[in-house]
Write a structure and sequence with these properties.
Length: 264
């Protein structure tokens, strides 16, 4: 299927690895020009080089990158100094650390809100007017399956991402929708990423279980009997960014291999 977005410009955050990289890869393969942003310069440069060497990348699709912390004013200024207008924006920032809510002070909460709620809102604000003027825009926020099924030790993430979810529910149904601009949230469950491995390693150490045993046990809790891959996550993201997804708006798209037990 031709997604109809070749030649568009996309900003992909947290694009140096994991789910962000999967999204950047899928978009580049569709002929989209991608500006990748992440904090670690060496890792980001290597990721950009990998995309440029991808045999499935059309020669017309360019790859740019800027090493910056998108959760800061300075980081966003660095991105927009390189390019101002984007047709596609994929927001993505590393989740806050797990822990006991009794231990989190105001600073911890503000940091979580800045990264996982306020930064996506700032990026949306910065890009939607241009999108409306051109009659096309796709914004995909990578959030978490914990928005639908909260995880007790991820309270910072539960709170911040739920705040973003509420904002998107209203903003996506504003006048943006009538101007060809959609905003959707993409909720990953257990995907084979560095963050998942780090969380599982911490949990395994705390419970005194071998990490390999813990991983296999976790897979068995998923009806698909496996973890997701960044490549298939990226494919979902690319479809939500496509010309064909213009009637999908304000939705929370859950990709978790069937793990969520609810009906709705």
């Amino acid at each position: 299927m031709d997604l109809g977005i070749a030649g568009k410009w996309a900003l992909v955050c947290g694009a140096s690895r994991g789910l962000g990289f999967g999204c950047a890869q899928a978009l580049v393969r569709e002929g989209v020009h991608v500006l990748m942003v992440a904090r670690r310069a060496e890792v980001l440069q290597a990721a950009a080089a990998e995309l440029e060497a991808d045999p499935l990348r059309p020669a017309s699709a360019t790859v740019q990158f800027v090493a910056a912390d998108i959760t800061t004013v300075e980081g966003r200024e660095a991105v927009f100094a390189l390019r101002r207008d984007f047709d596609i924006v994929v927001t993505n920032a590393g989740g806050p650390p797990p822990g006991d809510f009794r231990d989190w002070d105001r600073t911890a909460w503000i940091k979580a809100l800045d990264a996982n709620m306020l930064t996506p809102i700032e990026l949306i604000k910065a890009c939607v007017d241009g999108m409306m003027g051109r009659g096309f825009g796709r914004i995909v926020n990578i959030t978490s399956g914990a928005v639908k099924a909260p995880i007790d030790v991820l309270g910072l993430s539960n709170g911040a991402r739920s705040g973003l979810t509420g904002f998107v529910a209203g903003a996506s149904r504003s006048k943006l929708a009538g101007q060809g601009v959609t905003i959707n949230n993409l909720l990953p469950g257990a995907f084979d990423t560095a963050r998942l491995k780090a969380l599982m390693a911490g949990a395994a150490q705390k419970s005194g279980v071998n990490i390999g045993v813990a991983i296999e046990a976790r897979k068995k809790t998923i009806p698909a009997q496996r973890f997701g891959t960044p490549e298939e996550f990226g494919a979902i993201c690319a479809f939500l960014c496509s010309q064909h997804a213009g009637f999908i708006n304000g939705q929370n798209v859950l990709a978790d291999g069937g793990a969520y037990p609810g009906t709705y």
